[in-house]
Specification:
Blueprint: H1 2-15, H2 20-29, H3 47-55, E1 69-72, H4 92-95, H5 97-102, H6 110-113, E2 114-117, E3 120-123, H7 134-148, E4 158-161, H8 171-176
Antiparallel strand pairs: 1-4, 2-3
Helix pairs in contact: 1-3
Keywords: Nucleotidyltransferase, RNA-directed DNA polymerase, Transferase
Protein name: Reverse transcriptase domain, Reverse transcriptase zinc-binding domain protein
Organism: Artemisia annua (Sweet wormwood)
Length: about 180
């Protein structure tokens, strides 16, 4: 039960856009773990470190508990193009490492790369150099194919809990889902 309650803070961190408590966490822990779902300073102790540890538990299926937090694309203004789970089951930086290495702005938002104009997705890149190797071009064509099919789901980006049919995280549903046995 305690772990489920701690995980709820991870959910709130993703859901609550610009709240004061979230801004304080980011200012205290923000840059120490740049690609982690939740920021946490290496020297941190106490409750925030415990919250982060719960989400990083590996499930029996091999996935991290945090991987069940996925984004539904709205305007793309709050989602990291390369780092957040907004397209597929893994971040784009993991699926397309050669393109990620070419990217100048690794923290760019989805709205900075994908533009929705006249119901067509257009892309604007900021490469260190143009993709040219076989691996880079293969990744680029694969990514273009994925992005071509992306549909916006409203005005704002929304975080969802993929283990729930309605996308809403709740402690009671998590405990009854048998996804994980909490202490």
């Amino acid at each position: 039960m305690n772990d489920a309650l701690l995980l709820k803070w991870s959910w709130r961190f993703k859901k609550e856009g610009n709240s004061l408590w979230k801004n304080i966490i980011v200012s205290c822990h923000g840059s120490s773990r740049p690609w982690a779902m939740l920021p946490c300073s290496a020297s941190a102790s106490g409750c925030w470190k415990q919250i982060v540890k719960v989400g990083e538990q590996k499930l029996p299926n091999g996935e991290l508990l945090n991987s069940y937090f996925v984004a539904s694309l709205g305007d793309g203004s709050s989602l990291n193009f390369w780092g957040d789970l907004w397209l597929g089951d893994t971040p784009l930086r993991v699926r397309y490492p050669n393109l990620f290495n070419l990217e100048r702005d690794k923290w760019v938002k989805v709205s900075g790369r994908v533009h929705f104009e006249y119901n067509v997705n257009t892309l604007r890149w900021n490469w260190k150099r143009e993709p040219s190797s076989y691996q880079e071009l293969t990744e680029l064509f694969s990514l273009l194919g994925e992005i071509y099919d992306v549909n916006r789901q409203g005005d704002s980006d929304v975080w969802k809990w993929k283990a729930s049919t309605d996308g809403i995280f709740s402690v009671s549903r998590l405990e009854s889902s048998c996804l994980i046995t909490f202490q």
